[in-house]
Amino acid sequence: MIDEELKLDNQLCFRLYTASRLLTQAYHPLLSDHGLTYPQYLVLLVLWEKDAQPVNDIAKRLYLETNTVTPLLQRMEKEGIIIRNKGEKDARQMIISLTRKGKELRKKLADVPSIVGNAVICESVTKETAPELFRMLDDIILKLSNP
Amino acid sequence: MIDEELKLDNQLCFRLYTASRLLTQAYHPLLSDHGLTYPQYLVLLVLWEKDAQPVNDIAKRLYLETNTVTPLLQRMEKEGIIIRNKGEKDARQMIISLTRKGKELRKKLADVPSIVGNAVICESVTKETAPELFRMLDDIILKLSNP
DNA sequence: CATATTTATATCGTTCACGATGCAAATATA
DNA sequence: TATATTTGCATCGTGAACGATATAAATATG
What we know:
The first copy, chain A, has a 3-stranded antiparallel β-sheet. The first copy, chain A, has helices at 12-32, 38-49, 55-61, 66-78, 100-108, 112-120, 130-145, and strands at 53-54, 82-86, 94-98. Helix content of chain A is 59%, strand content 8%. The interface between A and B is large, with 64 and 64 residues. Chain B binds a DNA duplex through helix 1, helix 2 and helix 4.
């Protein structure tokens, strides 16, 4: 074994894990005022793109399992942000749709991306270099999410 | 608001969040055989670098709060991987030390970094480009963890 | 058409994360 | 030296994540 590899500073996963947590924390004050968590915000992003999707499509889009998404959606339904309806064609499906409240949140949260975006701009991450970072992360996700 | 910004594909946090989860999942089969979770493995990395550290130092190194680390360490103590002793100079401190079992895990898990490292090598993330990715993530962490 | 398999979702148990709060020891201040 | 403040850790409650398992509906197979 190469001892250097064991150092925390050399670990990619730890950086991803930390950056992810810290950036999620940056969303917190912007979302909590509206009773939202970050994963719930992700669900809204999916539904704002296309309303009325089955649980499975939402889960796949977020690279999550349904056993994570189901309780999350149940909480969102309780908050009146979405509604869950049995699928008509396929009775196994649960179709998730935005309520009026869920749709209105789109306007209320419209400035979140730019606020958070500005919060991460720094020496090595700029408008110019971000695409390269995105490409690397996408490649990692592709590599790890594949069969 | 710029509508494009609202698309999931344009969100940095979502990529970090997904990449972090998927890469952590890649660690799972390597760690679970030894009864470890990924955050517990991170604690071991910290202690392998320097044994006998107070809770606070471990938490700071991992950018976590003590209310996350304390229960985690209690579970690790129950598993016999570490021991928790009251600090001698400062009675408030809890000094965390490796047990024999905790030290032995270092050898048993020695090949984990290279296995996981190989799992993420892809088109845009190579030995050559990784330092650039590391630098970007470090900058983001620095920017977000600062006062 | 009856049975087997697959699929879509839900439930359960455990372990994080983390905001809020509590408590005792150490340190600062009056 | 009393009292106030800070510091280090622990406890509690809630919401993810996720492996394992369950259940009903749809589909495939005999």
